[in-house]
Amino acid sequence: MPELPEAERARTMLDRTVGRTVARVDDRDTYVCRPHGPGELDSALAGHRFVSTHRRGKFLWMETDDGPTLGLHLGMAGHIVVDDSSRHERWDRFSVEFDDGSWFALRDKRRLGRAILNPDFSHVGPDAADITRADFRARVGAGSTAIKARLLDQHALAGVGNLLADQTLWQAGIAPDRLTGSLSEAELDRLRRELRAAVRDAIRRGGVHTGEFIPARRRTRVCPRCGHDLTRGRFGGRTTWWCPVCQT
Questions:
Q1: Where is the domain boundary, 88, 117, 146?
Q2: Fewer Cβ atoms within 10 Å of its own Cβ: the N or the C terminal residue of the chain?
């Protein structure tokens, strides 16, 4: 499932289209483009030029010069393709063609991505890659819930998914069942540093699946740091793996 690093890589792909003028939009998939009807995104965007791309958490948006904003979400399996050789692939749910013949598409086999005009992201918390230390302490350390569940709460912190949360907690040496209110400021600061480090590494290396802990989580079920068997549980509605020795 795409998480913050995948969304950031998608944003950099979309950045290639900045400066191009929209010729036409294929918005026929009314489920991906809901609540818009067929042709609505085409009518709104045609003739406009994209001037910037942005991301908060897993949400993407593209601003035009003097028109509407295009919002995009990758869903559970989507990705962005730009000027790819496999044009009009059967899983292209939404696409934009430019006046120079170039194009981009939201390719999504599971059809859970979104394309929407003038999106409202007011319900989404600060981006996990940019959140300040003070904001992180206040949002992540407040209350009394399992820290794994809090990291997955997009209202508190945007962009962290299941794999990134497990990778970050393992790097920070914090057990996923620790209650948020029990974490000291030093532990919260360490968790924030490790989260930012995990995000940077995942973006650089190609996605959250590249984290050192993820192969152990998926296959060996042995801690790559100490060799102890991993423990499995469920927090925030998601399957969770952690080392009972390294993470306390």
A1: 117
A2: C
Find tokens 């950099």 and name the residue. Answer: 12
Given 117, 152, 169, the domain boundary residue is 117
Q: Which tens digit of pLDDT belongs to each residue from 37-75?
A: 999 999 999 999 999 999 999 999 999 998 899 999 999
Q: Are 101 and 150 part of one and the same domain?
A: no
Per DSSP (E only), the strands in the chain are 22-26, 50-56, 59-64, 69-73, 79-82, 92-98, 103-107, 114-117, 231-235, 238-242
Query: Are 148 and 236 within one domain?
Result: yes
CATH code, 58 = 3.20.190.10
Q: Which residues are catalytic?
A: 2-3, 58, 238
Residue in the structure block whose two tokens are 């944003």: 11
Which amino acid is located at 91 in the chain?
W
Q: Collect all residues with Cβ–Cβ distance below 8 Å to 241 and sequence separation of at least 6.
A: 166, 216, 217, 221, 230, 231, 232
In this prediction the pTM is 0.93
d(CA 14, CA 9): 9
